Amino acid sequence: LGVFKLLMTGIAVFTVDVYGRRPLLLTGVAGMVISLLILGTVHNPISSVVALLLYVGCYQVSFGPVSWLLVGEIFPLAVRSSAIALASFANFGSNFLVSLVLPTLQGVLGVSNTYIAFALIGMLAVGVIYYTVPETKGKSLEEIEQMFK
């Protein structure tokens, strides 16, 4: 699994400046949603393994590297270091909350419905990315800062 994750991250590194940040995020998160829907509805071991690999692969070419890249690009220089620190805190804080709540959520909803719930959150994420995340491919930090003025 570690080699697979490394391979997929390498694909992201080599394609992010070819295809752009938005397309990688949109297709990657959409792939994550599809894999979560498969995990929530198909109950066969081979499909589950394929869906898990699809999820991991899509994450490694989208949210994994691209979110950190965007965080370093979109904030103005005057607040960049503080904003990156806040974004990092929000990222790791939300990861902590998900791992804290997940056992309870699975107990209440069941495993399948938990996957479906996360797929719905993923659908919301696709919408938010589509409407709010600008494309920064090929732009200097100064040009990106001007996009927000």
Poorly predicted segments: none
Q: How many distinct beta strands?
A: 0
| H and E order | HHHHHHH
In percent terms, what proportion of residues is strand?
under 5%
Q: How many strands, which pairing sense, and closed or not: the largest β-sheet?
A: none
- Total of helices: 7
Overall form? globular
Secondary-structure content class: mainly alpha
Determine the mean pLDDT.
Answer: 95
| N→C terminal distance | 43 Å
**Approximate helicity band:** over 70%
Radius of gyration, CA atoms, in whole angstroms: 17 Å
In short:
It is built from seven helices and no strands. The protein is mainly α.
Question: How would you sum up this structure, described in words?
Answer:
With 149 residues, the chain is an all-alpha fold.
Give a quick set of tags describing it.
149 residues, mainly alpha
